[in-house]
């Protein structure tokens, strides 16, 4: 049986072209898949930073709302609060919120325990301030303003800003001397 010249198969040049095209198509597909993995990691990191920030703000709100004194010190890096206990009779304790570290390697602590890593200053604003710019004395209403950026490593930044008002507690119990 003799075959015609057209039945011999592919030439070496044709095979090389097909292999090159297959390589280009494979590289495009691989780049797309790796891009999806990087996007998922970024979204996961930002979600984690937002979640940790919400927990921090929840605890901060609880502290400020149950405080009868509030002071911001160290250029907005420290908040001092005289906070009511949840027990009866009411007792007062000093709670210190502090921004530690420097540059992009900062953390927010409460009583020395780190609640949020990787915080940064938001532009030129301070981390913490009072709405009036002055400390809120015992038994007076005051508002704490917060503004910072939270990150989980270097994947992106989440803006955390807002304010919470202190609800005056009067003069119940003995005063904690923290401010």
Helix content: 25-40%
The biggest beta sheet reads: 8 strands, antiparallel
Beta-strand fraction estimate: 35-45%
Runs with pLDDT <50, length 5+? none
Number of domain units: 1
Give the radius of gyration: 29 Å
Mean pLDDT: 81
> How many beta-strand elements?
8
Strand and helix order:
HEEEEEEEE
Q: Distance between the terminal alpha carbons, to the nearest Å?
A: 105 Å
Structure explained in plain terms:
By secondary structure, the chain is an alpha+beta fold. It has one domain (12-166). Helices cover 30% and strands 35% of the residues. The chain contains one helix and eight strands; from the N terminus they run H-E-E-E-E-E-E-E-E. It has one helix spanning 12-65, and strands at residues 67-73, 78-84, 92-102, 105-110, 113-121, 128-130, 142-151, 157-166. Strands 1, 2, 3, 4, 5, 6, 7 and 8 form an eight-stranded antiparallel β-sheet that branches. The radius of gyration is 29 Å and the shape is rod-shaped. It starts with 11 loop residues before the first helix and ends in a 13-residue tail after the last strand. The model has no long low-confidence stretch (mean pLDDT 81).
Question: Would you kindly provide a brief summary of this structure?
Answer:
By secondary structure, this protein is of the alpha+beta class. It has one domain. Helices cover 30% and strands 35% of the residues.
């Amino acid at each position: 049986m003799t075959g015609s010249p057209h039945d011999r198969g592919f030439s070496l040049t044709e095979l090389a072209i097909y292999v090159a095209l297959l390589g280009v198509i494979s590289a495009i597909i691989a780049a797309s898949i790796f891009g999806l993995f990087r996007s998922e990691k970024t979204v996961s990191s930002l979600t984690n930073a937002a979640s940790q920030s919400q927990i921090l703000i929840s605890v901060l709100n609880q502290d400020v709302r149950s405080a009868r004194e509030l002071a911001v010190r160290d250029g907005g890096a420290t908040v001092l609060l005289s906070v009511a206990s949840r027990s009866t009779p009411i007792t007062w304790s000093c709670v210190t919120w502090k921004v530690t570290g420097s540059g992009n390697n900062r953390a927010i602590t409460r009583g020395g325990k780190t609640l949020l890593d990787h915080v940064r200053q938001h532009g030129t604003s301070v981390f913490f301030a009072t709405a009036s710019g002055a400390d809120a004395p015992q038994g007076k209403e005051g508002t704490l303003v917060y503004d910072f950026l939270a990150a989980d490593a270097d994947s992106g930044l989440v803006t955390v800003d807002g304010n919470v008002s202190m609800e005056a507690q009067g003069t119940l119990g003995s005063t904690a001397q923290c401010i």
